[in-house]
Each structure stands twice: as structure tokens, then as C-alpha cells.
Amino acid sequence: MDTSSEDSAPPPAKKTAKTLAVGPMEEIRQFLPLVSVKPRTVVCESVNFEKKWECRVSVSLERFTFQDHRPFTSKKDASHNAYLTLGCAGQICQPDERKVKEKVNQHFSQSSFPLPKDVYKQPEPLKFCCSLTNITCVFTYTGADSSEASARQAAFRTALSCLCPLMRCPTALPTTAKETELKLKTLLDTAAGLKMKGPVLKSVLYRSSAKLKFTGFCVEAKGEQGERSKKETQSRLSQRLLRLLQGPETPDTASTSTDQSSKRNALQEWFQQGGLGMPVFEDANGKFGTRITFSAPLCLYSDWQDSQEKAGKKLVEEIKRKRFAFILDQ
Description:
The chain has helices at 24-31, 75-89, 100-110, 148-166, 177-189, 230-246, 261-273, 308-323, 325-328; strands at residues 2-6, 42-66, 117-124, 127-145, 194-196, 201-221, 280-283, 290-301. By secondary structure, it is an alpha+beta fold.
């Protein structure tokens, strides 16, 4: 992917009549001293941007029939495998999924598509086949890469690999982009009820990242009302720090008195896995006050956005409102 970075030490900008927006690097650097007990214990070393192309290929199925001649010993198994093939073709479910029919029907209902119909045949005693008729829907396949051509080929390859089992065709994929597109178009031309829906949609997306460096950084917490021991305060502070380092989606661990050490252990495991020095726990102000001091590098990312400016803003939001919020709100 294409990458670019903000200079770690940009020269001062010349003043102009037009006010310029503050970039993410400067905004992050202005914010970090506000969360540091000691100066320069956390610094932003660099801000980088990535760029990728995303292409989407849509295929419409109009009253398509999936003829499944595989025999099974029960109607339930026959139906499960027929819906599994359809579900995998539309990237609705995984090959090892169980309640496939329910998931496929739920997807069709939510997308306002009519539900497929089951048609059973019994080719021999105690053997059942299930075909699906009246399949009307749109499946969309996405490919992403650093160039438009590669992203386009990835989208067509995904479409081919998903649709070939539904059409009972060999799944061997071509190696070149032109051959991949030609094979998919030929496959759709020869199948009743399948066709390309509209042109290939394409977009350019951006993601921003910041490299932070913590050196002797401290977080503190006083014992809250209801906390009965220093171990409980250590557990609460360890969880806050984990959410700074791993993200707000870090699951809360057990809160019973017998499992308070699990949060501290989880925090120490994070440092151990990164080959870093262990965080230091000390007493602080308050009856059960606790201080944690640590040093570590940390790289944070924004979500993919449709402009570099939005990616920069999302990165600042990730740092200010998501990561550091957990140690500021004590």
C-alpha cells in the first residue's frame, strides 16, 4: 500500500491570510502533555498515511435454480448442504456453520429478497437431494489492494471462487486479471438467471497511524468507594491501562475477589508478549491508591476513510476520545 508520513520535525509554516487547519501530528502533540504526569513521558514520533483501492463486483441472481444432485440420508442434511453452498456463494456464512438455512433466510429477509424454495427429490430409497429454486438476490464481492488493477482482479477472483461451487464449475482460478474477468463473464453468460449488475464500483480509501513512545509514563488511581483492598484498585487500574494499550473493546475480566489478579496478569502478559519491561506497581495517595509506571512503543490506527483529512481526524479521535479517555476518567 502507498504510505506517506508527516515529518517528525516540520519547519514552522509561514503565516498567510488564510488560516490553515492543524494537522493530526500537531494536534496529537498538543494533546499528549495534558495526559502526562511528567513532561515528555509520552511523545508522538510520527504520523503516517496509507492508501488503498477498493473495487466491488455485483452479481444479480434472478429466479436462479441451484440443482444439487448430491444424495444424503435425510432431508435435513440435504437442505443444510444446499443452503450451505448458497450461503458460501453469497459470503453469508462460513463452511463450518451450523444453522445455515436460518442465517441465509435472515439475510434474504433483511435485504428484502424473496426466500428460496426447497425442492426435494428421492433418487433412491432413503436418499434425498435438495435443490433451491426462485433464488433472487444480489451478491457483492470486494477486492482491496494498493493499485486499482490489483483490487479489481481480487474482486473478480473472489466472485469466481464463491460462485463456481454454486454453478457446479471447476474452481481453478486464472492467473492474470484479464483471464479472471473473462472467465467470470463467460460463466455468467452461460448460466440462466445470473448476470453482472452494473459497472465495477471503485473507491480510494485512506488510513492514518501514529507511533507513540511511552517512557516512564505513570497512571494513578485512588481507591474508590466500595473497593476493599489495594488488589481491587490495582485490578481496576490495570483494566484501564489495557484499554489504552489494546483498545476500548478489550473485554472486562472477572471482578470477583478471587480473580482480581487476572487483570494485572493480563496487563503483564501484554508487556511480556511484546518483549518489553514489566510495568511497575507502587503505592500512591489514598487508602488503596495505586500507581503504574511503564515504558512501551504503541502504534494506533484510524479506520479506513474516503479522504486523508477524515483519516487524520479519526486518528486524533481514536487517541483523544477512545484510548486516553480510560486513564483520564479516574
